[in-house]
Structure formats: C-alpha cells, structure tokens
Amino acid sequence: MIDLEAFGEKARSWLNSVEPEFGRDARKGLTQDEDLALGRRYMATKYDAGFSGINMAVEMGGQGLTGLHKIVFEDAEMPYGMPSGYFGVSVAMPLQIIIKFCEDKAWVRERVIAGLRGEEIWCQLFSEPAAGSDLAGLRTKAEPDGNGWAITGQKLWTSYAQYSDYGIIVARSDPTLPKHKGLTYFWIDMRSEGVEARPFRMLDGEQQCNEVFFDDVKLHDGQRIGPIGGGFGVAMATLMIERYSGGDADGFGPPISAFVDLAREVEINGRPAIEDGRIRSAIARNYAMRSGLNAIRNRAFQMMEAGMEPGPEGSLNKLVSVRSRQKLSELAIDLQGGGGLAYDPEGFGKEDWVASWLSAPTGRIAGGADEMLLNTIAEKILGLPQDHRPDKGVPFNQIPA
Ligand SMILES: Cc1cc2nc3c(=O)[nH]c(=O)nc-3n(C[C@H](O)[C@H](O)[C@H](O)COP(=O)(O)OP(=O)(O)OC[C@H]3O[C@@H](n4cnc5c(N)ncnc54)[C@H](O)[C@@H]3O)c2cc1C
Hints:
This protein has 13 helices and ten strands. It starts with a helix and ends in a 20-residue tail after the last helix. The protein has three domains: 4-119, Butyryl-Coa Dehydrogenase, subunit A, domain 1 (Orthogonal Bundle); 123-240, Butyryl-CoA Dehydrogenase, subunit A, domain 2; 248-381, Butyryl-CoA Dehydrogenase, subunit A, domain 3 (Up-down Bundle). Helices cover 43% and strands 13% of the residues. Strand 2 and strand 3 form a beta hairpin. It is α+β, with helices and mostly antiparallel strands. Flavin-adenine dinucleotide (FAD) is lined by residues 89, 123-124, 126-127, 132-133, 157-159, 208-209, 362, 365-366, 369-372, 375, 387.
C-alpha cells in the first residue's frame, strides 16, 4: 500500500502541473456550460493520472487504495478550485451504491469508468417539496407495472439533474405501511420518457439545483436496488458513505490567510484593519475553531486507520465551519466598504468573499440542515431524549397531510 505522505506529495505535484489548465484562474469568466466542459476534461485527465476512484476496487475501474488516501487527495485538491463540483454527488454516492448493490458487474464497471472520467453524471433524487430533513415522508410513487414499476411524482433540489444521465431515486412503493417501511430504491435513466429536469438559479448565480418531475416513468425490476420496502435502509447507507470526506476546516470557503491579507490591505479609521482589536479577535476565534475541528477530524482519521468507525462528532464539522465561514465572509465584505459587495454572477469558478457569503445559507441546509445536526449532537453525543415522533409506526396513508 502506498504511504499516505508519499501519496499526498505525488498528488500535489500532479495538481501543480495541471493547475494552469484547470485551476481557479482558468475558470474565471467561464459560463456554467463552458465550466462543465472544462470539468469533463479535468475528470478525464485525473482518471488517466490515477487519482480517480481512489478507494474503489481495481476490477471496477478504481485504484484499490483506502478511504484515507481518497481524503488525502481531496485535501490536496480543494485549494486549487478545480471544476470537479459537477461530478461530486455522482462519484461520491451513486457510483458507490451501484458498485455495492447492482449485480450486473460488467454494466457497473462501464458506468463507474464513464462516471469517473466525467463522461456520464449521476444525480441523487431523494428530497421532495415535503420531504427533506424528514426523508421518509416522501410521496413520489413507485407502482407495480407489469414486470416492472411506474414512477410518478416530484423531486426538488436535485443537484446537476439537468446534466445527468442517470439517477438514484427513492419512492413510495406501499403507502399502507409505516413511512420508513414502504419505500423502495431504484436507479433511473434520466433520458427516459416522462422525466423532466428544470434547473433554477441560486442566490450566487449558479444553476446547481433542479425540480425534477416524473410522469409515469417505466422502470424494469432490474433497476431496483435492494429489496422491495428496503429503500430507507439503502438511502441511509447512501448518506453514510460520505460522513467523512476531504477538505479540512480551512477548506470550507476562503482560507483564514486570505482574511489576514485583506485585513492588512484595508484600513479602519486610517490604520490597517489588522491592528484593530475586534479584527484580531475574529481572526483568533476562527483560527481556534478551525484548529479544534481539525483535531476532531484527525482523531476520526486515526480511528479509521485503526479499522474503527468514527462517531457522530462528524456532525460538528459542517455545523461549525459553515456558520463561521458565513460570519467571516460577512466581516470581510464589511471591511471593504461599499465595494465589498461588487460581484459578477457570471464569473463561475471565482471564489471570493461575496460568493462565499451568498452560498453559505445553502451550505447550512444541504447535506443536513443545522437544526438536524444539532438534533444529532443532542441525541447521539449528549444522550438527550429523542424528539417526539407522533407518526412513528402509523401507516403512511393515515398520517394527516
Ligand atoms: C445546494 C443544495 C443542494 C442539494 N442537493 C440535493 C441533491 O442532490 N439531492 C437531494 O436529494 N437533495 C438535495 N438537497 C436537499 C437537501 O438535502 C434538503 O434541502 C435538506 O435535507 C433540508 O430539507 P428541506 O429543504 O426540505 O427543509 P426542511 O426539512 O423542510 O427544513 C426546514 C427547516 O426546518 C428545520 N427542521 C426540520 N425538521 C426539524 C426537526 N425535526 N427539528 C428541528 N428543526 C427541524 C430544518 O433544520 C430547516 O431549518 C440540496 C439542498 C441544497 C440547498
């Protein structure tokens, strides 16, 4: 097995060599479509260099290394701002799920290689207008249809569905069972008749999320992943895959060093802002917070290296880092006065304080809203009693809408 430190060195040297072609500066001013095309070329180049599917099995097209090697690469990659976001969900979850659950291994291998090379994109069709935090409350129907199924309903917030070739979807196959028990999980061809993805623009100008409509979309039973009624379990397995991924606390938005540079450049009352006590204390607070999170993360990695499962303290990472990024970005904008808000929404790939501030609210919702993370901390770390769950065990079709 390749030593982690040597692997990190090799990764950084490769990233430095491709930065001029794909890095943050190369992306400035590109439209989203141009940026996606650049992203596809980056993914193919990364695959050829042996940095894709790092912890996936070699026979599936991966590198056969460990989850820690993958994290080391992601940590190294994050500061470069490479155009890999379009493929983030696709590679992180759907590809891993089809490797784990689908039996036609030749088909899976083809999909995995095409996905890793950025030739195909998969999306994750879980959330709906009335089901996000409460995923088991979803209403999209999967009805038996001949030897297969017919899907009807609506998903919401689906990242990059407009570019996706395939998706993984959870739907309600039996409304007479309690909500967690009547769900079934499938893969779906996004080009099927009856599928329509409608992208919408976010506050930061990006068209990441979609509403996706399904009108009597036919699936064969071979597209089912896991047992009928076992969809919630597969959905949980999907969400657990990425509990720890790359990006240390400094990776959530612009690094503290960028804030320090800014505080040296701008003035408060005729003196460099860095000399102001409030600014110095904001820097110190952020530094201490990020160091604390990195210590928790390093402990989790040591547990993983020793073959143990890290605990629920991973919930702290996103909760604390995104909130503090939002506050620090707000302070950075304030420091720059009126010009601080100058922002070009067409400038994809730019990562400045405004972009960071505008996208922070979605960061506080996606992948588990703040309040849900607080619930996890309350119940799993502090051992407090669970929320009252009045719909527990009640057949789904008897729960008041
Ligand atoms: C940028 C972005 C990308 C996304 N990409 C995808 C994707 O690719 N695929 C996908 O399936 N989904 C995706 N999502 C959806 C995301 O998973 C949901 O937005 C998230 O789970 C929250 O669900 P919701 O939006 O329905 O909000 P709700 O669950 O309705 O929550 C609304 C508010 O109520 C609070 N709340 C809810 N329940 C409780 C409770 N029990 N206790 C205390 N407070 C509570 C929440 O914390 C939140 O503040 C994405 C979201 C965003 C913002």
